[in-house]
């Protein structure tokens, strides 16, 4: 952990600490946790409610009281918010909407009825000042401010109600792919926006930007890739024009009393080869504590040095109180893709559990310099299995091709932080991580977190770049530069990993539809607006098997400029498409951060394909839980499509309901006219599930 070094910053930190612990203010003012007016329930991202009408005794009586059917179908990752009597959300095609929170009656919907946006959204943000009430949400690179009561754009915000998220970025990045999947964080009259950008050589810089909620103007910018005169610049060697990202995409939390915003940052781009960015690469893969008023850094901690595994934090941090020596300490906890939990004093950045820097393997790729050590928290223990724990006995008992799986398992490098190589590396937890973007629930006053986790192994491998001498057309070269990681050299895709075949795309889409998707992206596919029109046309012709076989030997600008490229996202699966390792494949945990000990751990979800044997195997899951003060834990998230309620103290299953589509989203709990409700978005489509279009809401009979 490295804190600021200037005297003024030290004084600021000391003042914050003294003001916090003096005058009988040893703990922050306790929120009520009775509303759900912000993403994941509150600014501390607690996923927590003190509403108590639903109990362990009557939860079995929950029933659907209303269901809102959106006009479009597909992934709905959004966590609804509720203000007064209105529930706000975003459909699969990025249409913002408001419905009556007690009936589901649509009040307004904003979005072009003709143009369909194919990205994903995790929700909206809300701001008010007197009668000025605003919903802020993103579509493409635009951030909109809508009147919360009518859904109409507010003309005084930016240009006719919208601004470009790229407006605070350097000029050279203003035509690159930039969107936001996650709602911004509100602090006073500011909104600090997460950004999703490319993860390859075309990535924009991932600067943290705060915009004025009233005008849309850029108020402050923090450079996550430091400029030459800024602290941290020395941690980037040989930096060139191909380096970008280090963006926050997962969301953030804010302590309004301290005036500190906590921001987990992403990996630097390109993701899997860092030969052009030698060094530890601050402030990528960090938890940043910034002054929310100015963007000035107060402290930071880096979770992965020189990340070449895409091991960035996948969810917002949790703000909670943790007990040490009979005192409550305001803490910030961050879960990671590796399955680790890091806990810090949120005022100073001091770790509340020891963190050990351990030696990790070095790289064998030409030009790469993997960082020699990585930080491992001593406690709590990881909430997912680690690759180095696997043996041949861990092959799935359900696999018919066990010997082939054993052979690959034995052959692969299973060391923790084994760097990307030309031979297979077994990555467990996998690329998507153990913790996911749905986030972690917390008992904010008791120091306990509840985290759902995936245990899906993936095979990581690099390949040498195919250069133009082996390529017969410009379209093929553009494809190899931009599309091959997900859709493979032969265009066959990786359906089990969520990447479709493009071989027969001309039978499913028109050239116009493909052209739009190349620019805007779809689902978790990024867009490529930076591809010139000539190259985009050549790519489409190639995908439609209409290439003119134009030689590209002279097209030097189209060569991929690095010696290695990621070979693709391949899950470690058996011949039936199920995980190649033994269950559990998805888990749920309660962890006491006062002690670092686990309260309980259970499999989460079933595998219907295995019949009775699939009960309790756990399954891949996306979306997070919520917990209540009176002892309930609600979670959808699972591939099997159930909504479940557990006893948060014992993990006992109390109730389950088969949803109309899988709910890869975090639910929301709220109250209207004295009645308690819980709503969850059911969009499906991910993991090969049926697509859906509903927000389903439950209450007692």
Q: What tags apply to this protein structure?
A:
mainly beta; Cytochrome Bc1 Complex, Chain D, domain 2; 5-stranded antiparallel beta sheet; 5-stranded mixed beta sheet; 44 strands; globular; disordered N terminus
* Main sheet: strands, sense, barrel: 5 strands, antiparallel
Classify the fold: give the CATH topology of the domain at 466-559: Cytochrome Bc1 Complex, Chain D, domain 2
Helical coverage, percent range = under 10%
**Widest β-sheet, arrangement of strands:** 1-23-22-20-19
Q: CATH homologous superfamily name of the domain at 466-559? A: Cytochrome c-like domain
Shape: globular
Structural class: mainly beta
- Give me the CATH architecture of the domain at 466-559, please: Orthogonal Bundle
Strand content: 25-35%
Q: What is the rounded distance between the termini?
A: 52 Å
Alpha-carbon Rg, integer:
24 Å
Number of strands: 44
Continuous helix count: 6
CATH class of the domain at 466-559: Mainly Alpha
Low confidence ranges: 1-27
Chain-averaged pLDDT: 91
């Amino acid at each position: 952990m490295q804190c600021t070094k200037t005297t003024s910053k030290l004084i600021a930190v000391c003042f914050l600490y003294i003001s916090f612990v003096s005058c009988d203010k040893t703990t922050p003012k306790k929120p009520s946790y009775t509303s759900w007016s912000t993403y994941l329930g509150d600014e501390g991202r607690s996923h927590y409610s003190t509403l108590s009408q639903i109990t362990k005794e009557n939860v079995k009586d929950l029933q659907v009281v209303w269901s809102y059917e959106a006009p479009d179908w597909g992934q709905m990752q959004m966590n609804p918010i509720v203000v007064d009597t209105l529930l706000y959300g975003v459909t699969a095609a990025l249409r913002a909407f408001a419905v009556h929170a007690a009936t589901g009656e649509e009040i307004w919907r904003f979005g072009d009825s003709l143009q369909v946006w194919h990205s994903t959204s995790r929700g909206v943000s809300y701001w008010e000042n007197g009668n000025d009430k605003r919903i802020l949400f993103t579509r493409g690179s635009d951030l909109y401010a809508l009147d919360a009561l009518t859904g109409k754009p507010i003309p005084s915000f930016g240009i006719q109600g919208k601004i470009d998220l790229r407006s605070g970025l350097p000029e050279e990045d203003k035509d690159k792919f930039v969107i936001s999947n996650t709602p911004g964080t509100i602090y006073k009259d500011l909104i600090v926006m997460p950004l999703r950008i490319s993860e390859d050589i075309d990535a924009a810089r991932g600067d943290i930007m705060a915009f004025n909620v009233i005008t849309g103007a850029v108020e402050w910018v923090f450079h996550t890739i430091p400029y030459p005169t800024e602290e941290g610049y020395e941690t980037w060697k040989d930096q060139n024009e191909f380096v970008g990202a280090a963006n926050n995409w997962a969301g953030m939390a804010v302590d309004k009393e301290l005036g500190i915003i906590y921001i987990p940052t992403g990996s630097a781009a390109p993701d899997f080869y860092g030969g052009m960015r030698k060094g530890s690469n601050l402030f990528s893969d960090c938890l940043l504590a910034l002054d929310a008023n100015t963007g000035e850094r107060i402290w930071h901690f880096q979770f992965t040095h020189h990340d070449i595994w895409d091991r960035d934090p996948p969810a917002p941090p949790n703000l909670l109180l943790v007990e040490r020596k009979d005192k409550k300490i305001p803490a910030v906890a961050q879960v990671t893709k590796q399955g680790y939990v890091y806990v810090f004093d949120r005022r100073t950045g001091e770790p509340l559990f020891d963190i050990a820097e351990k030696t990790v393997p070095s790289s064998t790729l030409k030009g790469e310099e993997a960082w020699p050590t990585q930080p491992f928290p001593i406690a709590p223990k990881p909430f997912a299995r680690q690759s180095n724990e696997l043996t041949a006995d861990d092959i799935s008992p359900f696999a018919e091709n066990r010997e082939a799986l054993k052979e690959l398992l034995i052959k692969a490098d299973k060391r923790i932080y084994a760097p990307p190589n030309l031979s297979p590396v077994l990555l467990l937890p996998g690329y998507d991580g153990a913790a996911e973007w749905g986030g972690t629930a917390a008992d904010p006053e008791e120091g306990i977190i509840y985290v759902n986790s995936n245990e899906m192994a993936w095979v990581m491998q690099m390949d040498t770049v195919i250069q133009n001498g082996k390529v017969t057309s410009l379209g093929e070269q553009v494809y190899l530069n931009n599309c091959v990681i997900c859709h493979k050299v032969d265009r066959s895709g990786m359906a089990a990993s969520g990447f479709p075949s493009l071989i027969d795309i001309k039978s499913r889409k028109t050239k116009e539809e493909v052209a739009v998707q190349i620019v805007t992206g779809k689902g978790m596919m990024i867009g490529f607006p930076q591809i010139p029109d000539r190259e985009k046309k050549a790519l489409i012709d190639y995908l439609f098997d209409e290439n003119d076989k134009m030689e590209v030997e002279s097209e030097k600008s189209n060569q991929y400029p690095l010696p290695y490229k990621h070979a693709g996202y391949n899950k470690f699966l058996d011949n039936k498409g199920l995980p190649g390792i033994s269950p559990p494949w998805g888990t749920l945990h309660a962890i006491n951060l006062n002690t670092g000990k686990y309260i309980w751990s259970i499999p989460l979800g079933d595998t219907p394909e295995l019949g009775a044997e699939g009960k309790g195997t756990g399954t891949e899951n996306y979306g997070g839980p919520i917990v209540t003060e009176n002892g309930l834990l609600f979670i959808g998230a699972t591939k099997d499509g159930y909504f479940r309620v557990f006893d948060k103290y014992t993990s006992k299953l109390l109730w389950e309901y088969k949803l109309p589509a899988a709910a890869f989203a975090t639910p929301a709990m709220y109250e209207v006219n004295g009645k308690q409700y819980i709503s969850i978005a059911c969009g499906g489509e991910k993991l090969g599930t049926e697509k859906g279009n509903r927000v389903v809401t439950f209450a007692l009979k």
